Amino acid sequence: KQYEYILTSKPDPSVALITLNRPKALNALCSPLFDELNEALAGYDADPEVGAIVLTGSEKAFAAGADIKEMRDKQCAFSDVYKNKFLENWTAITNLRKPIIAAVSGYALGGGCELALSTDIILASPTAKFGQPEINLGVIPGAGGTQRLARAIGKSRTMELVLTGRNFSAREAEAWGVVSRVVGEGEGEVVKEAIEMAKVIAGKGQLAVQAGKEAVNAAYEGSLIEGLRTERRLFHMMFATSDQKEGMSAFTEKRKANFTHS
Ligand code: HXC
Question: Does residue 74 have its Cβ closer than 6 Å to ligand 1?
Answer without folding.
Answer: no
